[in-house]
Amino acid sequence: MIGQDRSALRIGVYVCHCGTNIAGVVDVEALTSWAAGLPHVALARHYKYMCSDPGQELVKRDIQEHNLNRIVVAACSPNLHEPTFRRAAENAGLNRFLVQMANIREQVSWVTDDHHEAYVKAQAHLAAAIRRVAMHEPLQRQFVQIRPQALVVGGGIAGIQAALTLADAGKDVILVEREPSIGGHMAMFDKTFPTLDCAACILTPKMTAVKLHPNIRLLTYSSVESVEGSVGNYHVKIRRKPRYINEELCVGCMLCIEGCVFTRARFPNPFDQGLGTRKPVWVPFAQAVPPIPVIDPETCLEIARGKCQKGCVEACGERSAIEFDQQEQVEEYDVGAIIVTTGFRTFDPSVIPYYGYGKYPNVYTSLEVERLLNAGGPTAGKLVLRDGSVPRRVGIVHCVGSRDKNHHAYCSRVCCMYALKLAHLVREKTGAEVYNCYIDIRTPGKGFEEFYNRVQDEGVHFIRGKVADVTPADGNGHLTMTVDDTLLGSIRQLDVDMVILAVALEPQGDANDVRRTFGISCSAEGFFLEKHPKLAPVNTANDGVFVAGACQGAKDIPDTVAQADAAAAKALAIIDAGQIELEPNTAWIEAAMCSGCKTCIPLCPYQAISRDEERAIAVIDPALCKGCGTCVAACPSGAAMQHLFSDEQVHAELEGLMLHL
Amino acid sequence: MSDTPHSEAASSEPRIVAFMCNWCSYTASDLAGTARIKYSPYVRIIRVMCSGRVDPTFVLKAFALGADGVMIAGCHPGDCHYIEQNYKTIRRVAMVRYFMEQMGIDADRLRLVWASAAEGQHLAESIDQFVADVRRMGPLNWSANWDENDQRLEALEDIVQEHAEAMEVQA
After folding, report:
1. Which end of chain A has the smaller Cβ count within 10 Å, N or C?
2. CA angle, A214 as apex, A208 and A220 as ends, to 5°?
3. Structural domain harbouring B111
4. Best residue in B11, B12, B16, B45 to probe A by mutation, most A CBs within 10 Å?
5. Residues A277-289 pLDDT 10s
């Protein structure tokens, strides 16, 4: 590299206008003619859209006609189009790693209003790329084999859909769900908007299909403890909580629940949002998959205190599925791709004191009302207040926690539609007067606006204004909602006997831990970050990890299912390709320069570096090296080197940045 | 625009070199661009795969070539794409700052910043803050200093040479 014959260098420089994105700020013609005069530059051109076919053709033709042996493209971020120009170079017979990009869009024209400074900065970045590419060397492309199994994390509708798609394509899938049953939030709903499909009718067949699918291994009541490795080869540890009931032996007859010494269910059922009760041995809901109860160790007398008549064991009889001595277990799997579908949680409105949630019993969250309306819920589908009475006047508060700078600045996207659905269902079931208090009604979906019109026609009242206050109207549980009606231009007070808070969707409480486990990022609001919001919406910064559903951002069921299938397709694409290309930016040791000091060895988190005792030098296993370059920076002898990020390359980049201006 | 070294063109604006991790802050800088967040144009960005790749020589070379400030931007502690290499960056930066003081460079001219891939706004603000702080410190002009102090450089080289010989004897 150092002894390279620089006189043979013929660098082609291409400056992209990107329409007006770059050319509107940076004088691309002047930049091109300036670059043409730099050392080793054989030719410099500018073009409207370098990434287009004619732009790529230009590069290919020039390589062949002008014997170019290095290419620099000053355009957008290399994260966007580096592969494009590498491929173009390769198609023209040039090694694809003899290409360098200068980021003059994201890092210059888009972030600077000052045209002169933008030009100077573009010059610096372009000169850096030209100096750097002179130091590039041809490299071999590297590929890694992909294991044909996939892991899906989270058994809501997104995880169910992704797992079924993968399994139907013949791949082995491990589906992990931390609750005792799959189904997620969708299983809690009675109807889905805007079609008013029964949620259970469309979800439970899919849940059963998961259970019966020969290619799916379903691990409920389990969570992913750790993920090691990288795309194609992940080693996953899954922690399985004890159910205290043997999943192989249990037939799902539920006789143990009947047999439990607690004759009355008296513990709050979290699936019913605490509105319903359960026994120590329980299933979240009747259609649970797998249809296997769990025993709660905190409330079970036998487990908590060691003394119980064990009615459950008696009821189970010869099956002997109940095992009080079950222990937590860790199972290990190797997979090639991972789809994270861990969903959302709803906003806790008790932090907004003026809505009175948690203070006045007749203030409910939307999710609680979903359970009350659900035929399988705690009231068997009857919409009644806590005292058993049927509400006559119901107020629905939109945007609780959403579009609120104090809580979540974003719109949760589904609340308007589910609030309309609840308004319809409440009216249908009780005939109550329903008042929807909204900031804006947002119904941008297929059939959504029509549904809004329908609910208006049904006589639901719409009041445009934020609810300021919910206060008790009298001692009988009635409430007064104070709302600033912005269409009427006056403050109104509405007497109601039930308030429903349309709560925001927010990231799961442990989203930050989950993201670390899978090596992905979160956006500012805490949802998992996709690789590109438009062009890679289910990819993440971790190549073999994909995201789908509400864990990536609030979304409704149709969007979630579509995204889950997209993630499954992306996982299938890498699995079926059988191999994936890696950046060849691994580190290596120049044996002649290594003093064997071992400085590098403990720096590597992947144990890729070991000491060859015979030669008394360090050696790096390229299969284990992930290419961070930390050992390269630490080597006191300069013996550790990194492909694509050698000292010479970075020094050349620095010189280009600083010297040509 | 002339093809002449910057030092000849009088400029009172600071020149900053920023090394950014491919996985977080480089992506954040792309995000700042996509979101059209404006920030100081006096920063020049070099992509590395990890903040842990930033060799002390990169920092010193940047100063030697005329940079007035160097920024290293990496993933937040605990979020390193390579498990834990940003912790090694923290330690290395402490060491480089120590060098810098010995060489007569204010250690505050090297700044370590954490910015996740989602924090375009935060990164832009950090750059603006650093540019403002470096502007307050004034130009460094370290390479010009060198020429005036050839003797000091020679003395330093002697020390390095002696040290290297001592190491060889020990080995």
Report:
1. N
2. 55
3. 13-140
4. B45
5. 999 999 999 999 9
